[in-house]
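Render this sequence as a predicted structure.
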Amino acid sequence: MSQNASPALAFLLVPVLVIGGFFGFILLLTGSQSGNAAAGCGTGTASTVDVSQVPQGPIAGYNQAQLVVAAGIMNAAQQLGLSARAQQLGVMTAMGESSLQSLTYGDNAINPDGSIADSIGPFQQQSSWGTTEERLDPFTSATTFFQRLPTVENWETIEPTLAAHAVQGNADPYFYTTYWDGAGQITAALNGDTTGTNTTTAVNPAPGCSDGPIGFPLAQPFNMSDNFGPRVSPVAGASSYHPADDLTGACGAPVYAIQPGTVVVSDRLTLSVKSPEGYTVSYLHSYANDRLVSKGDQVTTGQTITLIGNEAPSTGCHLDIRVNPTCQGELRPVAQSNSAV
């Protein structure tokens, strides 16, 4: 693939995020059928949950015992003065780590002194996070999680899974993505609020964040080698849920911005550009030293922003591209995104 290839731009007046009309993308804007699914846009005040009034369930597939764990997590966020978004983020994390259970077992890790640290509790915390009793208690373990969350830069605006990953330090930054919507259903139900920050109710609902032109991320021709949905993990460290599309291309070929915006993430694996409308397009697997833009830079449609790479976890040189819709104003679409490889 030529390094000097120009991007083929598609100037069709369609919702920006419905990119499937151009080249078979199956992107991440499928709205929840639930009236109180996750919006992920909330910065409102967190409510206290009366644990004695937790419903039998199921809510998002979770039973009463699991919802009680969620209530403890939500109350920890409220006690620390954090937002409803923080409550949802904490519940999402515990859903991914333990299915909202105070597990007495989990992954083992080696401490610096050579001893084995058992990961336990709703957040699968190791011994450095507290005593066994503290880690098994939903409220206390969540308090520890929420005390660390505000130290993550821009935790309230970056993708929730990235904020959780920064605290938890798990192998896959996008592991928690599939739990965000369910966490929104749970926090909305336990807060007794189906019209606020944790719902998908929208004024003038729309399938995307805006209308306008988009560009192709690679020079044509290219092929989609993997698409959105469940799968068998292809390599160690990869998620079994792939809410993204993989586009094949030669190592070192240019990657173009499909929309204008601001670079908000540039880490080992991910380069993310946030649009003025509020959604984020992420381009994965390029090498950090191949990045042509840095965090805070403004990019335009068709601008070369990085090169195709094979940064792990990866199955070979390719571009993994995904969109995380967030919201501005009254529009609150479901935020479902991201998994590596």
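Summary. Residues 64-79 form the longest helix (16 residues). The longest strand covers residues 9-15.
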